[in-house]
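[Discussion] Sanity-checking designs against the backbone

I'm trying to build intuition for which residues belong where. Below is a structure token string of 188 positions. I'd appreciate it if someone posts a full sequence so I can compare it with mine line by line.
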């Protein structure tokens, strides 16, 4: 019986260490960005050794996947299915942009750092795919075809982008509501 208890407690400690490593990495990614975050920094913040970090995450990609999965699980992107129920294209776009800009505001500290770096490891593939699908969903009810559809889709994709929100709100000093108005005019 004692052996089972010891194994269970060891597994709990391993799970706690793993979560502390993920939390430490997320905090550092948000503070200094993924490019400037080292395994030594993560280990120090998580109060574990470097070997423990590598035991849980054998490479940077594994750690990045765990961090992005945990972070996006705690900060889910807007649900596009609700947008599909709105028949009027402009009303759908306005609703989508309002929810998207609220999401961008809530994830600003992280996304400012993460999106500033190169996207060569693919950890953001799901994030970018979400916004690509959202742009397709928002362009569909306009009924545009050919080149007009491509341009409309591009405008909507640009309106949804974190960088657009950041430029309008932080760069131009607009409120989220004003940024939605500008983005709707530009996109449609």
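Best answer:
Here's mine. Compare freely.
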């Amino acid at each position: 019986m004692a052996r089972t208890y010891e194994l269970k407690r060891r597994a709990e400690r391993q799970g706690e260490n793993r979560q502390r490593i993920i939390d430490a990495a997320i905090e550092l990614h948000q503070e200094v960005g993924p490019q400037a975050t080292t395994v030594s920094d993560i280990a120090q913040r998580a109060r574990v050794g470097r070997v423990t970090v590598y035991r849980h995450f054998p490479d940077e990609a594994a750690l990045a996947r765990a961090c992005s999965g945990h972070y996006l699980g705690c900060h889910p992107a807007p649900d596009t299915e609700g947008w599909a129920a709105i028949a009027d294209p402009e009303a759908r776009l306005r609703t989508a942009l309002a929810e998207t800009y609220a999401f961008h505001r809530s994830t600003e500290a992280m996304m400012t750092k993460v999106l500033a770096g190169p996207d060569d490891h693919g950890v953001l593939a799901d994030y970018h795919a979400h916004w690509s699908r959202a742009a397709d969903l928002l362009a569909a009810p306009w009924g545009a075809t050919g080149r007009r559809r491509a341009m409309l889709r591009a405008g909507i994709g640009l309106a949804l982008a974190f960088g657009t929100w950041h430029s309008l709100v932080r760069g131009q000093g607009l409120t989220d509501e004003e940024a939605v108005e500008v983005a709707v005019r530009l996109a449609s």
